């Protein structure tokens, strides 16, 4: 029997696997100890459980347990990796390279570091202008005096500006039309000041998988650290920090059928990678992340990692078959559909497709018994369509018409069949009331019309 | 985002969806919005020579609120004179459909569509008169 509503948004989060819940429960009941309590059995039990989970997570990515730092989730892991590297390696350089299609946890962290650097430079400029003008200078006068004294070419100011600022300079690389990084452009963007490259494993919107091993090899050759936000790909496609030469990797539990609120940062030991902590305190996690460990969640995360590793091959094949059934079902029945991002280099469970001339939010309203996501502006408060799709060069109208399906461990064939029929029906209905579809069918070039932007 | 019952009703049972002959001298067509913004509304009004709106049809590309706004105004303008229809404001639409602040632009678009359709009708009529004289 088909049960509604259907969950097909497994990139947002995944349901907790019942087997994971089972192993967690004792740690929410009788085994409540603090893993740092070294002097009694409650603490020892918790410590042993954490140790096992750490090994399970490490094994999933080809790491050792000493390289796993537990965090509250991938957003924290991303922040810790980037800010931690920038602070620790500030005397070496301050340049980061990342992609325009990265998750906001990466992009907004980078933007903050750019702001920190800019604020520091503004302060220095003010100081230097005070020296040059031989009086106190107010911030309002900076522009005028900077021009007068040509401060940008002033040797002293230039020297100051090259000193560590606590922030960073960031290059946001474009991606190719299929969503993948261009390795030549990546190499060209590297400077002697580059300390970190941060590139995701698989994209959360379009499921496009990046050439991680190639990026890792390039970074190693250039002596640049490589951080990978591996949240969406881990447990879905093989990931190995040794083979791929990854130095830091962000992982989260709730995208692989574990509990929310727990994640990890992989930090390489050989050759040693150092990071400054964001959270100071009791020195947990070898000083990289203080705070009492969330034992029950860690146990769940560990078990989820073990299940993911054991079942990856079978599960990936099964989900890919369902995804292809969904894709073919939709594209065979409907005209004017566009797949967003590479089909070949793609997570098995991801389908991101634009149904031209049928707006995404209204389509989601029509299929309200199916949980999916849209790149339409209307689903967010910003009214801007998906920046990921825009970075791929997807036309704005098509970005507004995109739907992301995320299939997962608990998706059934029956659900896929149901979704195909429902989506086809609703897209047709919306197109019947779409002036754009009517015009396109009449052969009118929509680009030739002068639209009234609002 | 939760939709009001009225938005859902108009979305599920849109009134007066369709296309009129835009060459008909008594049909005024308003096409507003932009595909890049995610909303395009086309409103067509059949207006008698003495200025009474006899019929209305719409087609809309956009979110549920945009579809509901256009569906609603087709109901409202029917039977009204052109002058009466010109007084329909986006606030009336937003209030009737309980649109949240981020969806106010949908109601603005509906008001613009009415004005654009009437404008088109008036232009056609003026052109006809000029030809006749």
UniProtKB/TrEMBL annotation, chain B:
Q: Which GO terms describe its molecular function?
A: iron ion binding; iron-sulfur cluster binding
Q: Which GO terms describe its biological process?
A: iron-sulfur cluster assembly
State the organism's lineage.
Bacteria, Pseudomonadati, Myxococcota, Myxococcia, Myxococcales
Family of the protein in this entry = Belongs to the NifU family.
Natural source organism: Myxococcus llanfairpwllgwyngyllgogerychwyrndrobwllllantysiliogogogochensis
Q: What is the designated name of this protein?
A: Iron-sulfur cluster assembly scaffold protein IscU
- What Pfam families does UniProt report for this protein, alphabetically? NifU_N
Q: GO cellular component terms?
A: cytoplasm
Primary role: A scaffold on which IscS assembles Fe-S clusters. It is likely that Fe-S cluster coordination is flexible as the role of this complex is to build and then hand off Fe-S clusters.
Out of the domains of life, which is the source?
Bacteria
For the NIF system FeS cluster assembly NifU N-terminal domain, which residue ranges apply?
Answer: 2-126
């Amino acid at each position: 029997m088909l049960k509604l509503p259907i969950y097909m948004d497994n990139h947002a989060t995944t349901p907790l696997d019942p087997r994971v819940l089972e192993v967690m429960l004792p740690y929410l009941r009788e085994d409540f100890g603090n893993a740092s309590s070294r002097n009694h059995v409650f603490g020892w039990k918790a410590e042993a459980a954490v140790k096992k989970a750490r090994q399970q997570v490490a094994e999933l990515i080809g790491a050792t347990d000493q390289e796993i730092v537990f965090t509250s989730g991938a957003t924290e892991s991303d922040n810790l990796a980037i800010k931690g590297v920038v602070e620790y390696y500030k005397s070496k350089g301050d340049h980061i390279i990342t992609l325009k299609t990265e998750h906001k946890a990466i992009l907004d962290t980078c933007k903050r570091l750019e702001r920190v650097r800019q604020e520091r430079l503004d302060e220095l400029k003010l100081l230097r202008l005070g020296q040059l003008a031989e009086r106190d200078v107010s911030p309002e006068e900076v522009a005028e005096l900077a021009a007068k004294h040509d401060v940008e070419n002033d040797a002293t100011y230039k020297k100051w500006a090259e000193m560590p600022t606590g922030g960073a300079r960031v290059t946001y690389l474009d991606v190719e039309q299929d969503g993948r990084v261009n390795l030549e452009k990546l190499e060209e963007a590297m400077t002697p000041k580059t300390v970190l490259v941060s590139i995701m494993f698989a994209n959360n919107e379009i499921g496009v998988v990046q050439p991680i091993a190639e990026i890792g090899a390039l970074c190693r050759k250039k002596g640049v650290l490589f951080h990978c936000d591996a949240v969406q790909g881990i447990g879905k496609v093989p990931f190995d920090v040794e083979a791929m030469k990854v130095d830091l990797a962000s992982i989260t539990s709730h995208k692989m059928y574990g509990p929310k609120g727990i994640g990890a940062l992989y930090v390489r030991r050989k050759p040693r990678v150092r990071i400054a902590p964001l959270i100071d305190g009791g020195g947990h996690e070898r000083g990289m992340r203080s705070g009492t460990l969330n034992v029950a969640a860690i146990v769940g995360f560990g078990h989820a990692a073990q299940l993911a590793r054991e079942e990856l091959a079978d599960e990936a094949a099964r989900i890919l078959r369902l995804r292809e059934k969904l894709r073919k079902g939709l594209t065979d029945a409907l005209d004017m559909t566009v797949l967003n991002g590479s089909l070949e280099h793609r997570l098995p469970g991801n389908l991101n497709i634009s149904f031209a001339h049928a707006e995404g939010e209204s389509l989601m309203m029509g299929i309200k018994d199916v949980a999916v996501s849209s790149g339409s502006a209307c689903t967010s408060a910003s009214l801007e369509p998906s920046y990921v799709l825009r970075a791929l060069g997807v036309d704005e109208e098509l970005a507004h018409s995109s739907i992301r399906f995320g299939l997962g461990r608990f998706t059934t064939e029956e659900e896929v069949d149901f979704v195909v029929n429902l989506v086809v029906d609703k897209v047709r209905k919306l197109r019947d009331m779409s002036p754009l579809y009517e015009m396109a069918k009449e052969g009118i070039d929509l680009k030739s019309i002068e639209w009234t932007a609002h | 985002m939760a939709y009001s019952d009225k938005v859902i009703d108009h979305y599920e049972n849109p009134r007066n969806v369709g296309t009129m002959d835009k060459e008909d001298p008594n049909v005024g067509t308003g096409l507003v919005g932009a595909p890049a913004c995610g909303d395009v509304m086309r409103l067509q009004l059949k207006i008698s020579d003495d200025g009474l709106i006899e019929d209305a049809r719409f087609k809309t590309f956009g979110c549920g609120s945009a579809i509901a706004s256009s569906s609603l105004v087709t109901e409202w303008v029917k039977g009204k004179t052109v002058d009466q229809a010109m007084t329909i404001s986006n606030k009336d639409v937003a209030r009737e459909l309980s649109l949240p602040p981020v969806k106010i632009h949908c109601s603005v678009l509906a008001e613009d569509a009415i004005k654009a359709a009437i404008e088109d009708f008036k232009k056609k009529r003026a052109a006809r008169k000029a030809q006749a004289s």
